Amino acid sequence: METDLAAVAVGALAAALTGTATNLGQEAASAVVRAVRERLGTTPRGRAALAGLETAPDDAGARREAEAVLRDEVRADPALRSTLAVHLNASTSHTTGSVVINGGRVRGSQISLGPITVNKPNTTGGLLVLAAALLVAVALVVYGGVRLLADGSPGDGGGRSGVKARALSVAETEQMMPSLTDLPGTWGTSRPPGAEPSGETKCHQGAAEYEAVEGSRTLDLKVRFLAYACSSTALAAEGYTSLVKSPTNPGSRKERPFPTRKFGDESATAAYAVEDEYMADPSQVGQHLMSRARVGNVVIEMHYGPVRDEAGSEQQAEQLMRIMCDRAREAQAQG
Q1: Which of 99, 202, 241, 301 suits 64 as a labelling partner, its CA being 20 to 30 A distant?
Q2: What is the 3-state secondary structure (H, E, C) of the chain?
Q3: Taking a C-beta distance cutoff of 8 angstroms, is the pair 273, 253 a contact?
């Protein structure tokens, strides 16, 4: 049975808009969301469908309209079909009366995905969003097993070799920076994605900053992305080495090495702490992580913190850095 790529891709976008699929692997999910948004945004009907979906992501009518528009685009554009198929690793199977996912099964009021059991929601909206997430999962059968939009196999940490390196334009550098829909969790924008042309450094500088949100309350946790899109790999390698050898951070504190997986071609992560002491900024008290990496011609620095009980985790910081590195990789591969 051939996968309906449009339905699965729109389902991924709907799930991302409601926060349902944020734990299914953000690198692949963000690539699909980005592709759907960009293609729907090219026509008046597509823009109207996208607006309707963003307003009511759990509305079946809005979903159907977005799927219809995207389905026409997929049929007319083999490149788009190939892009979605690659990111979704599309393949499905059907079993009467149940859905089987690598040994998982829908039964009664529960859904089992291998070792994971999920209670089916009682509301129509909740069922629609869950169905979207299941469509994404069902479409991702790879080598006889399911990869739920995986960020990479264990141990790779997003650190793939053979990255295509090329110089990015200012516009490409800005597009490379993560937007709200690319981030797991709930965030508000402190500084929208942007980029400035290179000066003497010969590296365009991109930046974006977000703050964690809980309901109507803004938390102290922030993530700040800086990216330097250089004109050559040699220049990027030199810049990366300089960042690691002479690190600076918003707290101007001494950093200590922090163990994590590899990102991009080369990477290093460090941590520093702001103690609750006299004259300390209360909003900055806690542990902060500084992740630095080079992906081809792009040098990345990410500040994440403070990590406290109320918000933030080392796992989320790693996930965000993988997203940024993946975007740098994709931006250079598109040329």
Answers
A1: 99
A2: CCCCHHHHHHHHHHHHHHCCCCCCCHHHHHHHHHHHHHHHCCCHHHHHHHHHHHHCCCCHHHHHHHHHHHHHHHHHCHHHHHHHHHHHCCECCCECCECEECCEEEECCEEEECCEEEECCCCHHHHHHHHHHHHHHHCEEECCEECCCCCCCCCCCCCCCCCCCCCCCHHHHHHHCCCHHHCCCCEEEEEEEEEECCCCCCEEEEEEEEEEEECCEEEEEEEEEEEEEECCHHHHHHHHHHHHHCCCCCCCCCCEECCCCCCCCEEEEEEEEECCCCCCCHHHCEEEEEEEEEECCEEEEEEEEEECCCCCCHHHHHHHHHHHHHHHHHHHHCC
A3: yes
Residue with tokens 């009682």: 122
Whether 328 contacts 295, CB under 8 Å: yes
The Cα 160–Cα 150 span in angstroms is 14
Which among 88, 113, 16, 86 has a CA at the least distance from the CA of 57?
16
Q: Cα(60)–Cα(64) distance, rounded to whole angstroms?
A: 6
As a residue count, the chain comes to 335
**8 Å CB contact between 14 and 132:** yes
Per-residue pLDDT tens digits for 180-196: 888 888 899 999 999 99
Residue 134: pLDDT band by 50, 70, 90 thresholds? low
pLDDT tens readout for residues 188-224 = 999 999 999 987 778 999 999 999 998 888 989 999 9
Q: pLDDT digits over 251-277, tens only?
A: 778 899 988 888 999 999 999 988 876
pLDDT the model gives residue 43: 85
Burial class (CB in 10 A: 0-12, 13-18, 19+), 166: middle
The per-residue pLDDT for 274 is 85
